[in-house]
Design goal:
Number of strands: 2
Radius of gyration: 13 Å
Helix content: 25-40%
Strand order of the largest sheet: 1-2
Structural class: alpha+beta
Order of helices and strands: EHE
Strand content: 5-15%
Number of helices: 1
Shape: globular
Length: 79
Amino acid sequence: MLPEEIVGIPWDFDDPKAHDDLPTDVDIVCWTGAPGGRGADEERYRQVYVDAPVGGLRSILRRGGRPTRVILASSTSVY
C-alpha cells in the first residue's frame, strides 16, 4: 500500500492520445512501464522505456507541468 501522498495513475501508453490525459500537477514522475512477456523484442523495449516516457513527459511539460524529478524503473535497473 502506498502513502496517501503517492497516487498511482494507470495510463495506456500505447495510445498517444492518452498522453494528454496525464495530470500536470505532479512533483515526481516514477515510470514503471513493462514491455510484456519474455517474447518482447527490441522495438517493444524502445517503445516502453524510451518513446512512452518521453512522450508522456513532453505532454506534461507542454501543458505547463514541471515535475522536479523523473525516475525510470525497469525490470533490470532503476535510473
